[in-house]
Every structure is written in structure tokens, then in C-alpha cells.
Amino acid sequence: MGRRSPGDLGDFLKSLTKLLLSWLTISMKTKIAQPAELIDLFVVVLNKFAALERSPRDFGTGDKLFPSEIHVVEAIGKHPGINMTDLASELGVSKPAVTQMIAKIMKKDLVERYNGEGNRKRVLLRLTKSGWLAFRGHEELHKRMDVDLMSHLGQLTSREQGLLARVFEGMAAYADRAIEERTPGVPPDRSPHRKRGRA
Q1: Which CATH code, of 3.90.1480.10, 3.30.420.40, 3.40.50.1820, 1.10.10.10, is assigned to 57-183?
Q2: Rounded distance, CA 66 to CA 68, Å?
Q3: What's the CA gap between 125 and 28, in Å, rounded?
Q4: What's the pLDDT score for residue 109?
Q5: Order of strands across the sheet with 119-127?
Q6: Global pTM?
């Protein structure tokens, strides 16, 4: 790719877990971590995840897919026969955004449109053979990542796990407030920026 890739997500998660374990160890010993250092670490994590969102990956089809594209494939694979409106709702994005994404992944022969039975105007979506290959490749990636991450998280004591949960809850609340400021009147879980899963 022209720029340095963030590397394998498994390696990134190992590094993140080591950073969090180090922070937890330090904070348990010193009782108080420096807020500026925690904010810096939080920004580093956000930047790494942003880099991952910009990094396409081959899920077994020969085409590199961006996380947003594989999330569309994943949603259609989990809901065969879904229509565009329901897919937009499932992904938390606008219908025009889904229409553009479907056009992109149709060019990669991952998805096809078809008319519903009894209603020729109703357009439904399903995965092609290549789409199912990408869907399964994505699932396999997460199985490997989850095992690796769970082994690292399993090294934490219950107290450390509780602290980590509180940290993540605080981050989520902070993000919800930031989303509300940017999209007034739209609840964070219904905004286009809602959590969509892992890439």
C-alpha cells in the first residue's frame, strides 16, 4: 500500500492489551495515573483504529475490501433477502450511502439484487458465491482475533477486568456525548456513527 500498514490486527490487539495491562499495573501500584497520559493513550488507540478503517483486506476473494464494505457483506450474509431500507437501518447509515456501497461491492461480484416474490418492485439483496467466501473469511478472522484477545484479557484479575470495563464504559459515554453534540436530537445508538462491529 503506499503508506505503512498498521499490520495484522492480531498484533495490534496484542500491543493494545500489553499497553492496557501496563497501564493497569502502573495504576494499581500508583493508584492514580496521569490524566494527560491516559488521554494520549486513548488518542493513540483511536488513531490506530482509524488506520485500520482505512486499510483494505482480502477475505479470500482476491479483492481487497475496506471494513465498511465487509460490514455490508456481513449484514447481508446475516440477513439474506434484506432490502435496502432495512440494510441502511441495520448499518446505521443513510439509504443513499447504502446504495453507493452496494454499487461498489456489486462491481466486485459479492452481492446481487433480485426482485421479491409477488412484488416485482421490491428489491432484495443476497450474497454471491464470492460474497459468501468473503463472509466466511471475515468470520474466520474474528475467530482468530477473539481467541488471541481473550487469552490476553484472561490474564487480568477480576478487579482489573472491572476497571477496564469502567474505562471502556466511560469512553463510550464520552463518545455518545460527542456524537450528540455533532448530531443534535439523534440518539447516539441511532446516529450514523453508531457501533457497527469489528472489521
Answers
A1: 1.10.10.10
A2: 5
A3: 51
A4: 96
A5: 82-83, 119-127, 111-116
A6: 0.64
